Recover the amino acids of this structure.
């Protein structure tokens, strides 16, 4: 303070003048801000705005609800028996989703539910304009979550140095044993990394691509 | 106690012999415009001079350490990037580095360099925040607009890669969540160039400003002894001449190479230890971090094709044992002491956060100063209350 005070009065304030010059220069330039409600922000595809649900893909396996760090996903389902389609055939059971709700007042927007979903039923959408006057309205039921689906952008292309997609690796790899059910992917893949067996939830194991770092739809 | 020669005499018109003054207890906070967040300071003042000060913490205690114990290592990242919301990437990094070390996991090289790049960008974001908010606390409104313009530039690229603007959630055990988007490196290079090109604007408002210097020079001097006693770290310690930076001293990620003799990394230090020195360290560290970011970009462009993460088992369990992992967060040392009993959740995960120690030292620094300087000193400790209270 003392050194500065020694300088003569009005001429001895070059630092402040320098700052004022910057302000004057900036004033002459076009503004870098955008007036939000009129100018919409450009958000990247990975932007974590809201979670969209593709209901057809959901098998009510509860993985997302269990992995959620603050348990803000509510799922109700029941089992239905599908009668045999052919005479003498077997009856089949399937899960029917009754309720799928995400409480966005609790959600921490971590994206773990989307990451763990083995069937790509959940997707991030960059939409963010869903504030409510009543906190209870932030509980989005499955129809509302489904409405976000059209806003889900395609995933961005990956960096040129990224590892090749698992699908490409699978096609170029030497052939495997003969598949017995060609319509469905084989239940377990003979990956060299020693993938653990699928979770013991009585569910169909995930298709091989779901847990790969490869481009995931909607991510 | 601060040195008495640092005291500036207060001359207030008083009657002969002065007034008989009684010490008064003054509460600053927990809600106060001069504290960012809910830090409470109970200071005892004699007139305008502070006799003693006590930071009272805990208003934002969220029990993060206890919550860590019931979450697996992916869910912990959600919490780990929240205690210090301005250094989210660096904080998540500490968790995953610790787990990787305990697992003996080899992280792909591209992930290492991408992490280093993102950590340095995060450091710039953090420092720009304080470079804007500190003058604001001193009464200068303008710099924060410039700081936020640069922050926006960098936040845009961070959001493009991670999807988040503050809580990135981009680290995973074994690497990153997903690969970088195509063309992202070019956009980062552009953003770094833009920030570097416009940084003189911000500097023009801060460096050499007589009012700012008058408020900060010689105010709130922290001595190296106090720093050692209170475990102060980061820019505050370096501003007092404590040459200590984990990026150089205990290299993690790619810092060993970056801080080698010919590398772009260097540790910024000052000797004065006052508020101005702390601000100068912050400003210069922005330049260093931008240099480091550019070095990371160059490296990422030349690295061969490869993954950014390793395949994890469905249930990730960390072998029994314990390990302390410290990283140089933008605000100082950030450490996680991980004790595992072989479960998929930690048995204990102790969090050592930088701001806690940096705020604790206020009890030493504030006494002897004037109330008007209190705000200058408080702001120059560069803390995040979430990081104090955990």
């Amino acid at each position: 303070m003392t050194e500065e005070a020694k300088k003569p009065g009005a001429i001895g304030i070059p630092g402040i003048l320098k700052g004022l010059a910057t302000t004057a220069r900036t004033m002459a330039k076009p503004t870098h801000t955008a007036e939000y409600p009129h100018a919409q922000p450009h958000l990247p595809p990975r932007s974590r705005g809201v979670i969209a649900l593709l209901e057809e893909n959901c098998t009510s396996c509860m993985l997302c609800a269990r992995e959620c760090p603050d348990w803000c996903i509510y799922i109700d389902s029941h089992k239905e028996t599908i009668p045999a389609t052919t005479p003498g055939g077997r009856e089949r059971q399937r899960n029917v989703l009754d309720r799928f709700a995400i409480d966005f007042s609790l959600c921490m927007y971590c994206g773990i539910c989307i990451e763990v979903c083995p069937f790509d039923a959940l997707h991030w959408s960059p939409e963010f304009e869903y504030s409510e006057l009543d906190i209870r309205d932030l509980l989005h039921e499955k129809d509302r979550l489904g409405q976000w689906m059209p806003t889900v952008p395609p995933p961005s292309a990956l960096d040129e140095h990224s590892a090749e997609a698992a699908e490409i690796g699978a096609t170029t790899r030497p052939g495997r044993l003969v598949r017995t059910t060609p319509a469905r992917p084989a239940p377990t893949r003979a990956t060299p990394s020693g993938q653990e067996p699928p979770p013991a939830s009585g569910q169909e194991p995930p298709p091989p691509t779901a847990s790969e770092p490869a481009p995931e739809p909607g991510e | 106690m601060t040195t008495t020669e640092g005291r500036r005499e207060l001359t207030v018109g008083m009657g002969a012999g002065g007034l008989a003054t009684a010490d008064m207890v003054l509460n600053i906070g927990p809600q106060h415009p001069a504290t960012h967040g809910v830090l409470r300071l109970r200071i005892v003042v004699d007139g305008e001079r502070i006799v003693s000060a006590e930071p009272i913490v805990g208003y934002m205690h969220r029990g993060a350490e206890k919550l860590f114990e019931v979450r697996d290592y992916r869910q912990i990242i959600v919490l780990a990037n929240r205690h210090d919301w301005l250094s989210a990437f660096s904080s998540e990094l500490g968790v995953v580095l610790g787990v990787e070390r305990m697992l003996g996991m080899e992280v792909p090289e591209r992930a290492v360099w991408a992490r280093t790049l993102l950590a340095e960008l995060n450091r710039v974001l953090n420092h720009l925040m304080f470079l804007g908010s500190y003058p604001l606390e001193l009464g200068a409104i303008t710099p924060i607009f410039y700081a936020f313009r640069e922050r926006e530039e960098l936040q845009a690229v961070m959001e493009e890669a991670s999807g988040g603007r503050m809580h990135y959630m981009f680290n995973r055990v074994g690497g990153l969540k997903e690969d970088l988007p195509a063309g992202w490196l070019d956009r980062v290079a552009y953003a770094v160039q833009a920030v570097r090109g416009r940084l003189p604007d911000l500097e023009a408002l801060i460096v050499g400003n007589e009012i700012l210097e008058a408020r900060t020079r010689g105010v709130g001097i922290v001595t190296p002894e106090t720093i050692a006693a209170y475990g102060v770290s980061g820019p505050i310690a370096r501003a007092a001449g404590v040459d200590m930076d984990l990026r150089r001293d205990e290299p993690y990620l790619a810092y060993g190479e970056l801080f080698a003799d010919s590398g772009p990394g260097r540790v910024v230090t000052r000797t004065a230890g006052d508020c101005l020195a702390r601000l100068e360290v912050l400003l210069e560290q922005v330049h260093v971090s931008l240099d480091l970011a550019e070095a990371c970009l160059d490296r990422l462009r030349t690295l061969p094709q490869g993954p950014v993460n390793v395949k994890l088992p469905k249930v990730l369990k960390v072998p029994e044992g314990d390990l302390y992992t410290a990283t140089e967060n933008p605000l100082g040392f950030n450490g996680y002491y991980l004790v595992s009993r072989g479960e998929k959740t930690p048995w204990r995960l102790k969090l050592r956060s930088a701001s806690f120690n940096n705020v604790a030292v206020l009890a030493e620094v504030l006494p002897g100063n004037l109330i008007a300087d209190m705000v200058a000193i408080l702001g120059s400790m560069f803390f995040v209350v979430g990081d104090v209270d955990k």
About this structure: The mean pLDDT of chain A is 77.
